[in-house]
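Support case: user asked for a sample of complex input and structure output to validate their parser. Sending the pair below.
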Amino acid sequence: MKNAAALEKHGFNVSRIVLGCMGFGGGWNNDPLTADDLKKARAGVEAALEAGITMFDHANIYTMGKAEQVFGQVLKESPGLRDRIVLQSKCGIRFEEGPGRPHRFDFSEEHILSSVDEILTRLGIETLDILLLHRPDPLMEPEEVASAFSKLKQAGKVKGFGVSNMSPAQMRLLRSAWNEPLLVNQLELNLLKLDWVNAGVHVNQAAGLKDNFADGLLEYCRMEGVQVQSWGPLAKGLFTGKDVSDQPENVRKTAALVKHMAEERGTSLEAIVLAWLMRHPAGIQPVIGTTNPERIRACAEADHVTLTREEWYDLYITSRGVRMP
Ligand SMILES: NC(=O)c1ccc[n+]([C@@H]2O[C@H](COP(=O)([O-])OP(=O)(O)OC[C@H]3O[C@@H](n4cnc5c(N)ncnc54)[C@H](OP(=O)(O)O)[C@@H]3O)[C@@H](O)[C@H]2O)c1
């Protein structure tokens, strides 16, 4: 599978498609892991590796830590696997931890440091390749974050750092205290939620008032060499086989167009949806959230599909449901 260019520049030779691990580990509760959870994780990881996927995305909160825990078990039973893959995780979100303790974000040094220790323990590894700050904390102090990053790096616990769901201004604020590049920004980008494309198209138009995407974000990442990752790239299967009979017309038409293009090219529905994201010059890395081996293989077919400009616009315009200005 082709590599993710922006990460390659920093020495991470990883596949363009990433396996998101939010679906591993069973339910979002504190129940113990089951044999079924392990079987599912093993099958998903195996399918990904066979398809050429070498990067895996976690977060400390996924299934309350169980996604990392079960992945750690897969690593333990597969000698040599750790060295063949790149592991990314996130911290900074805290769920309610008891009465009067709100669900909140926390970029304090203490929380970042302890989160990484817990991530390493659950995964059973000594070094995490990439740590992302999950969602912007309004109380973020760049110097404090930079101090945490620097301690983690010096201790050999994390190789590189990035962010998720952040604006260019927030990234610049962090960079004012952190002298190394932010490697990644992971954002919700897909063929359903189009604000990330619309925001650029609607400059200087009233339609732009409705776009929910930070101004200049993709441009900033492209200029700074930040690897853009898409979470939710399959839009939960809306264009790749889910029943859309009760969906709005634009969704139904887009699903039909995806099917038509897939048939025409002899590829999977997932390949078309992901190839649409990957055709964008920001060099997006889709972080696929499926745990189904068959769907993982279907996603990997995107590596062989390059949409024409016309096909790309056809999908975009059909999904936005409104002609270009
Ligand atoms: N940074 C962030 O804030 C953030 C937020 C959310 C997620 N993430 C990351 O991004 C990854 C992907 O996110 P996501 O899971 O929301 O997005 P996704 O890849 O768009 O959706 C995957 C989900 O859709 C289901 N699905 C896919 N195709 C389907 C179909 N044809 N019919 C029925 N169900 C279908 C999958 O079920 P099956 O498993 O059964 O295929 C899975 O539950 C996560 O694993 C996580 O690593 C990051």
